[in-house]
Amino acid sequence: MKIGFVINRLATEKVNYTTTHLAETAVRRGHEVWYIPVDAFTIDPDERVHAHAFGPPRVNYRSARTFLNDLQSKECRKERITVYDLDVLLLRNDPAEDVVTRPWARLAPLYFGRLAATHGVIVLNDPEGLGHAINKSYLELFPQSIRPRSLITRNHSDIVHFIHEQRGPIVLKPLAGSGGHNVFLLETGKEPNLNQIIEAVLSEGYGLCQEYLPDAKNGDTRVFMMNGHILERDGKFAAIRRRRPGSDLRSNLSIGGSSEQAQVTEAIEEIAEGVRPQLVKDGLFFAGLDVIESKLIEINVFSPGGLFSASRFAEVNFFDEMIDNLEHKHDLANQEPGGFNNREIATL
User: Fold this and answer.
1) How far apart are the C-alpha atoms of 105 and 95, rounded to whole Å?
2) Does residue 12 belong to any structural domain of this protein?
């Protein structure tokens, strides 16, 4: 297969990224891999989508580190490829990285991904589904029993009222944010800088208020979903427990959180089953559920990270499981050309 990976920038990719290990696994298994930065697409007068792409100079790698070093070296292959010639296009950019300096880049891959899908390329996650799940309001589509009590608003007084009504700590964050940016814990509603906090969050658009779950002090569990089910290989589930860095409210690995092996409890399995129908409906091939206690607090559908740690803790290679499934989708598409639309094949 020819597989394209849409990323933010080649220079900022890291060895522990899920994208790095997935791409290295694909190369090791004989597939052709291309990295496509979000600013590398071109639509020519012939109406075909092209991309200035980067590929590894070799086909045999013993480690993800060597693979990435080659990609970020002068030996890296650089070609202007035709996106429509790809078999699979994986949209792996993180919109949070571009929200301040390159806001135009956040959604650009969706536009080009839609065009690729109409020309027979398997695009994952489905661009239309990503459009539906672009911010945290996506949680509102899931059963109320599996998510925290919440408020979405741009009204300052609504937030203050929610804080007092809740009679306990709440978490306030931007609706469209990710990566732990501008996340605040408000414990009393009488914080001296309350107005400034609310203004900071609302300056980015709508704000999301959620009830604070006491077990949050112990971090959260990131559970990886593939095709609407918890990603599994050799009887082991892909999940990690993320711990806070010190007294920080957030558990994100990108801001210094740590990870450890996680137990997939019955409550987590119930949450996974609760979100499954919507993920399948929206063609969301790969997603990360963030769970505290028995509640789903967030869902990452653009670039779920941490799968390398999950593989290490479980002592199985979940990336092989994902490549197995991409090969399965490719075989189905070739056996029945036109038999599935992109959203259907995304979760088969």
Assistant:
1) 7
2) yes
- 207-211 sheet: strands from edge to edge: 150-153, 207-211, 170-174, 184-186
> What is d(CA 92, CA 231) in angstroms, rounded to the nearest whole number?
18
Q: Taking each helix axis from N to C terminus, what angle separates 307-314 and 18-28, rounded to the nearest 10 degrees?
A: 70
According to DSSP, residue 158 is labeled H
Is the pLDDT confidence value at 150 over 70? yes
Does the pLDDT at position 250 exceed 50?
no
Lookup: tokens for 137: 């309001």
Q: Is residue 335 part of a domain?
A: no
Provide the residue range defining the domain that includes 25.
2-124
Q: Are 142 and 280 in contact (CB under 8 A)?
A: no
Kindly report, residue by residue over 191-233, the tens digit of the pLDDT: 888 999 999 999 988 999 999 998 888 889 999 999 999 999 9
Please name which of 121, 123, 116, 125 lies closest in space to residue 47, comparing C-alpha atoms.
Answer: 116
CATH number at residue 308: 3.30.470.20
Q: Which of 212, 227, 257 is the last residue of a domain?
A: 212
**Beta partners for residue 4, in sequence order:** 34, 89
* Rounded Cα gap, residues 219 and 179, in angstroms: 15
Residues 6+ positions from 336 with CB-CB distance below 8 Å: none
Q: What is the pTM of this model?
A: 0.90
